[in-house]
């Protein structure tokens, strides 16, 4: 007989919040659980493992769609991992792209700070750039 967990115990064991579990069920990341005679959700240990997998993947920045694909691929352990590698490579490319944009943002904000005359707000270069150059952030995407 497998051990069953109520949603609160599952949340605690997996390190996620109850609304997160419900959301993951709604979007298909977590299968709908069995129900008790009192219509309470009952989860098995596989749900804990799956939620920990999802949580760790989210901590690494994987998108929900990619996590769903990874979970689908993980059910066939003898399958070649080419598709898993492709997902990870795409994610790494996205991380590198974000790092490049963040570096450009850092450079721009540093430049604004250096150009600040430390006078009055009316003379403030930071306020001036923000007020008149809204397009700067859009150009970093």
Task: Outline the fold blueprint.
Layout: H1 7-14, H2 18-27, E1 34-35, E2 41-42, H3 45-59, H4 64-74, H5 82-115, H6 125-132, H7 135-138
Antiparallel strand pairs: 1-2
Helix pairs in contact: 1-3
Overall description:
The chain is mainly α and 141 residues long. The chain has a domain at 1-63: Multidrug-efflux Transporter Regulator, Chain: A, Domain 2 (Orthogonal Bundle). It contains 7 helices and 2 strands, in the order ααββααααα. The protein has helices spanning 7-14, 18-27, 45-59, 64-74, 82-115, 125-132, 135-138, and strands spanning 34-35, 41-42. Strands 1-2 form a two-stranded antiparallel ribbon. β1 (34-35) and β2 form a beta hairpin. Residues 137-141 have low confidence and may be disordered.
- H/I helix tally: 7
Named at the architecture level, the CATH assignment of one domain is: Orthogonal Bundle
| General form | elongated
User: What string gives the helices and strands in order?
Assistant: HHEEHHHHH
Number of strands: 2
Average predicted local confidence, pLDDT: 88
* Largest β-sheet summary: 2 strands, antiparallel
Give the CATH level 1 class of one domain.
Answer: Mainly Alpha
Strand order of the largest sheet: 1-2
**Radius of gyration, Cα only, in angstroms?**
23 Å
List keywords for this structure.
141 residues; mainly alpha; Multidrug-efflux Transporter Regulator, Chain: A, Domain 2; 7 helices
């Amino acid at each position: 007989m497998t051990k069953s967990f109520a949603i609160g115990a599952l949340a605690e064991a997996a390190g996620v919040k109850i609304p997160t579990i419900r959301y993951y069920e709604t979007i298909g990341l977590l299968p709908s659980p069995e129900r008790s005679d009192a219509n309470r959700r009952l989860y098995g240990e596989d749900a804990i493992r799956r939620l920990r997998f999802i949580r760790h993947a989210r901590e690494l920045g994987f998108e929900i769609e990619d996590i769903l694909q990874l979970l689908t691929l993980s059910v066939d352990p003898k399958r070649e991992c080419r598709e898993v590698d492709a997902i990870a490579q795409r994610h790494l490319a996205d991380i590198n792209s974000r790092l490049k944009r963040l570096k450009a943002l850092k450079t721009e904000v540093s430049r604004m700070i250096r150009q600040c005359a430390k006078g009055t707000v009316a003379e403030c270069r930071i306020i001036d750039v923000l007020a008149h150059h809204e397009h700067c952030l859009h150009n970093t995407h």
